[in-house]
Records
---
Amino acid sequence: ETGVTQSPTHLIKTRGQQVTLRCSSQSGHNTVSWYQQALGQGPQFIFQYYREEENGRGNFPPRFSGLQFPNYSSELNVNALELDDSALYLCASTGQGFNNEQFFGPGTRLTVL
Amino acid sequence: QQPVQSPQAVILREGEDAVINCSSSKALYSVHWYRQKHGEAPVFLMILLKGGEQKGHDKISASFNEKKQQSSLYLTASQLSYSGTYFCGTDRGADGLTFGKGTHLIIQP
């Protein structure tokens, strides 16, 4: 069984730029959620995708957007980067609905200068 | 609203027990517990669903009191490998998991 993978591992951008982060879900999982984890904090829910449709969103502005593809892999796009966007971005895949365990990927560390 | 975890940090000797608490002001469908080591992804420990159930595996167990909207994680005879930050994630059905700020657990030999 293939685990959740994310790319890239690390990324450095400057304010105002755009970034795309990628996530491959665990084999057989059709739901992907994205989280932002600032240093010393718990993960904060950004949004969830189920069968290519956004299926729930946290308190993040529209410049955070996403996609899910037919193979259930997913992208997180962030436009007009701000310094506060510096964080670890985690994706998690789930098999059937939210009551099942979420498997987290290793994360992408984004630094905005 | 973010669940409140207590304590914020705890230092134990190997073999001692620990309890980590998680409480919410909102009604919950389920509570999820994760452990995260420095520089790594959170690792799933267990889910507790509505019904006041208690679950466990190995020497880690948890309870969920849905009336009080509280959950507790019990670590028995702690091992060095238990060190890390423990997060509870609460699920209200539609907004993803809302995680607490975490409890830092340090196990000393």
---
Amino acid sequence: GIQVEQSPPDLILQEGANSTLRCNFSDSVNNLQWFHQNPWGQLINLFYIPSGTKQNGRLSATTVATERYSLLYISSSQTTDSGVYFCAVDDYKLSFGAGTTVTVRA
Amino acid sequence: DTGVSQDPRHKITKRGQNVTFRCDPISEHNRLYWYRQTLGQGPEFLTYFQNEAQLEKSRLLSDRFSAERPKGSFSTLEIQRTEQGDSAMYLCASSLVDGYTFGSGTRLTVV
């Protein structure tokens, strides 16, 4: 199956800082999604982004499908951004990376 | 439509007992997926349905696990003779074309 690697595994930020999360994948995919998992375990869809760049408020994502990676940018981080961020690639089912745990300190 | 619903939210069971979880997908979504997530890991694929047909099962899904989706609507996941290693969050997702929507999950604890 497709291998998905996320980096870094952990990220500690001061409130207001910017950060970049990376997702590498081993093969061509139909689709890529970024999720945020809240402390109750709910996976919240952030971006459906097979290619190109999308922005939603302080979050943006870029996928370069030909080079098999995607980046998630968090700007002006807030404590509510804390949680685990997952990248998942779709080859008719989602394969997840191990996640990046983000902790934003006030 | 309120999204993907899962029931129960939490389940504690004794080892050896059978448990059944339910997932109600978004009504117009024809694909339904089950995933399992253990602490510190990403969700792992278990099985998926397109309408009522079960199209793939992961090798993670031992013969103690069975899933159904009668009439292509809700789905159930049953675990027979539960073991402590079955303790995990069980997540359901549905999709149509663009993107997957996940439910809140059922957290299973086997004691």
---
Amino acid sequence: EVQLLESGGGSAQPGASLRLSCVASGFMFSQYAMSWVRQAPGKGLEWVSGIIWSGATTYYADSVRGRFTISRDNSKNTLYLQMDSLRAEDTAAYFCAKVGPIGEGGYFEYWGQGALVTVSS
Amino acid sequence: DIQMTQSPSTLSASVGDRVTFTCRVSQSISTWLAWYQQKPGRAPKLLIYKASSLQSGVSLRFSGSGSGTEFTLTISSLQPDDFATYYCQQYHSYPLTFGGGTKVEIK
């Protein structure tokens, strides 16, 4: 059974940093691309960042580029999102998502339960 | 960026109804489109990928169609468990983008 377990969410002041982690199990983590998707309270889904299986290539939404860094440790089956220079508009539930098989594209096959990040002074 | 427009934003329907919603895309994405279902307080769940491929374990009530710039998700006979919000997502190119969602409410 695929499981994705996020942690590291919480409250932060504007300008502060937080790091989210997502521990994966139930599949060969090192063979799949992964992404982070967020959802502000009462709003729709927004893709934030993605990383290929090896970690060699990363992608970012314009809204977070230069402030957030995605990374992975395949030896620990763990995906990370380092969030710096946080803004109030970053307040959201952050979902870790497993991307579909290589060659089939970037849809999100499985999702974690979400980690809540609240940015407020 | 590729823009995704879902319609309607809200749909009122009854159990047993056949419902269809639409996702329109600002440029051609072939069939690189997925559909998700989300219930309040829960993570989204993949229903359809590549426009019409049913994800394993998903009810045969759900079907997807379309290509290029216009796509549809159909629920053949609405069940109580289907009242939720549905999102489309393109994965033709980065940044990956979602539609604004269609909320299916009980009539």
